[in-house]
């Protein structure tokens, strides 16, 4: 496989009052150009930590990350990041929020051209009627559409999505999964997404990397998702491969839930106050067929 993103043997240690806490250890993962890969695992295993190292927002303790042949050494416009909350500037309209990044990335382009780019992506996410509204006039789903448009409009080399629909209700989440799929179909951006939702991962991804539980988490297994693009949700759900693939994900995660931590690591694991994550994943998993946090 030709590697576009190479996460090579990374370890991340956080200092804590009771000693260093190793969140991920010897973590390897490669993505090819244009691939959509989801990272799935239990709450607190280190998914967001990995994503923020790729975003350049968190330092790597050891190992390295290379994107398109260049080592990542900090944040940069070559990576568009979408978080759970879009964090829009409240005094600017949707268009101005998108334009801000576009003008910074395309400094050589005229304002008119930049407006065209921003408008194009806002139209793609279905906000042609609302692009002159301010965030407070938009629903949370519409705000996240602006967040997606903003990330794609930067023309980044890759997209990093950290539970982008985690705060939305199911119907809005489905709608936005379609929006993301359409954006991705137009641009074929290499994408790394963190999610708790196995159905979301199966609908959107080419591959799903399953993380072991921390401390010292790494990729335990990788699942190929064979459904052809463009995908239609109903067709995906009716595909005879769908439930066996879903079962494989759940079996892996269930296996991790029952695995004991190595005594040495258990003793060293320390969760600082305020950084504790809840066990939302598993309570949600067994409450219904859908597995989202
Ligand atoms: N700045 C920090 N200092 C110390 N420990 C941290 C810090 N940030 C994260 N951690 C710890 O690292 C571990 C992994 O956190 P992370 O947010 O990456 O997990 P996650 O898999 O994304 O969880 P969730 O699915 O609940 O969002 C957790 O135990 C967390 O408490």
UniProtKB/TrEMBL annotation:
Q: Where in the cell is it found?
A: Cell membrane
The main place the protein resides is membrane
Q: Which UniProt keywords apply?
A: ATP-binding, Cell membrane, Membrane, Nucleotide-binding, Transport
List the molecular function annotations (GO) for this entry: ATP binding; ATP hydrolysis activity; nitrate transmembrane transporter activity
Q: Where is the ABC transporter domain?
A: 5-238
Pfam families, A to Z: ABC_tran
Q: Which InterPro entries match?
A: AAA+_ATPase, ABC_transporter-like_ATP-bd, ABC_transporter-like_CS, ABC_transporter_ATP-bind, NO3_transporter_ATP-bd-like, P-loop_NTPase
Its cellular-component GO annotations read: plasma membrane
Q: Which SMART domains match?
A: AAA
* Membrane topology, as annotated: Peripheral membrane protein
Its domain of life reads: Bacteria
Q: Which PANTHER family match?
A: NITRATE ABC TRANSPORTER ATP-BINDING PROTEIN (PTHR42788:SF7), TAURINE IMPORT ATP-BINDING PROTEIN-RELATED (PTHR42788)
Q: What is this protein called?
A: Nitrate/nitrite ABC transporter ATP-binding protein
From what organism does this protein derive?
Answer: Sorangium cellulosum (strain So ce56)
Name of the encoding gene = nrtD
């Amino acid at each position: 496989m030709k590697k576009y993103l190479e996460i090579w043997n990374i370890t991340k240690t956080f200092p804590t009052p009771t000693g260093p806490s190793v969140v991920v250890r010897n973590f390897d993962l490669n993505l090819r150009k244009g691939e959509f890969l989801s990272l799935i695992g239990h709450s607190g295993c280190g998914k967001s930590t990995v994503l923020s190292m790729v975003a350049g927002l968190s330092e790597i303790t050891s190992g390295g990350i290379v994107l398109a042949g260049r080592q990542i050494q900090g944040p940069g416009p070559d990576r568009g990041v979408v978080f759970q909350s879009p964090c829009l500037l409240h005094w600017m309209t949707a268009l101005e929020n998108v334009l801000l990044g576009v003008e910074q990335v395309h400094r050589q382009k005229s304002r008119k051209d930049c407006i065209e780019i921003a408008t194009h992506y806002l139209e793609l996410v279905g906000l042609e009627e609302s692009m002159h509204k301010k965030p407070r006039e938009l629903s949370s789903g519409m705000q996240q559409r602006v967040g997606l448009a903003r990330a794609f409009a930067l023309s980044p080399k890759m997209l990093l999505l950290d539970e982008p629909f985690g705060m939305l209700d199911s119907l809005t989440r489905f709608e936005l999964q379609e929006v993301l799929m359409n954006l991705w179909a137009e641009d074929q951006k290499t994408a790394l997404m963190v999610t708790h939702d196995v159905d979301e991962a199966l609908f959107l991804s080419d591959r799903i990397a399953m993380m072991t539980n921390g401390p010292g988490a790494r990729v335990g297994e990788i699942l190929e998702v064979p459904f052809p693009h463009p995908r239609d949700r109903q067709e995906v759900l009716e595909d005879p491969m769908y439930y066996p693939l879903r079962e494989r994900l759940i079996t892996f995660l269930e296996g991790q839930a029952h695995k004991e931590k190595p005594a040495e690591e258990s003793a060293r694991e320390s969760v600082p106050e305020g950084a504790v994550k809840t066990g939302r994943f598993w309570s949600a998993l067994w409450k219904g067929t859908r597995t989202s946090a």
